[in-house]
Amino acid sequence: MEPIFTLPYSEYAVANRLNFIFKKKEFSILIPLSRQEKGYDLIILNKKNNKTARIQVKSSRLFIKLKKSKEGYQYGMNFNNFNGKYKKGDADFYLFFCSFANHEQNKTRITRRNSWIDLILCYPEKDMFSFLKRLKTNRYFSYGFENLKEIFITRGLDKGKRADEYLLEYQEDKIRKHLK
Q1: Phi and psi (nearest 5°) for 78?
Q2: For residue 25, pLDDT beyond 60
Q3: Which residues constitute the domain of residue 54?
Q4: pLDDT of residue 15
């Protein structure tokens, strides 16, 4: 009998995206065997110098509003405030993940190919703890968006402030620099 290893979809999807960004010749994406590992969910290993980047993954389901909110966002993501649950040094980067169906407004049928879109925000540890300290809510914070290039904070602090600078594709260089 072989034991079964399970992994939350959010961590799998993030690992898959990181594996695409960080090529196998130079990097490995490592997953702890214990689901109870404190502080991080994934590790990126630079094979050339053995430096690592510890990744904590947070996920949300997509909230779709039938009518746009007052701020003008039809889509939203909520994340629990985890201030106090983690300490500095537990993870190097915090990735916020949301997956949703890719459909055009005039299409009623979703095809298998390109049917899901993953939205990943990436906060370096320093930025994450600064963000959490400034939160004005104890429960959760939210993001809203209409498209994947303009992400806004909608609850928690700095309501209406753009957060698209934290999209994974814009933070890739910071992760690479950390791994040098």
Answers
A1: -115, 140
A2: yes
A3: 9-178
A4: 95
